[in-house]
Predict the structure of Altered inheritance of mitochondria protein 19.
Amino acid sequence: MGGKDSAVEEATATFVQRFRAWGENPFPPTLLATLITAQYMRPFQALPMLFPPVLLFTSYANVQGFKTDSAGISAAWSGLYLLLAGRRNQPFMKKWGARGITRGATMGLCLANMVGGGLAYTLGKRENGEEE
C-alpha cells in the first residue's frame, strides 16, 4: 500500500543514484578539463591551467578502478575551480558571447561534478586489501 510516500522515496533514491553514477563516471572530469583548457589556453594563464592535469588524472584513476577516491578528488578540485571562477566579475553583455557561454557551461559542470563526486565519495565503498 505504497501511496505518495513510497513514490517520493523512489524519486529521491533515483536522484541520489543518478548523481552518484555521475560522480563515478570518468567522462565528466575529462569534459571539464577540456572546457577549462579551451578558456585559458589562449591567452595562456598559468593558475587556471593547473586544473586540467589534475582532472585528467582523476579520470585515469577512475578507469584504473579507484572510483571512490577519484570521485572525491574530482569533487574537491571542481569545487575549488567553481569558487575561484565565481570570484571574477563579468559584465552582463559579455556573458552571452562564446567565452561567456563556455564559462557558464564550465561552472555548471563544476557544480554537477561537485555534487555527484561528493555523493559518490561519501556513499562509496573502498575495497581494502585485507580481508576480515
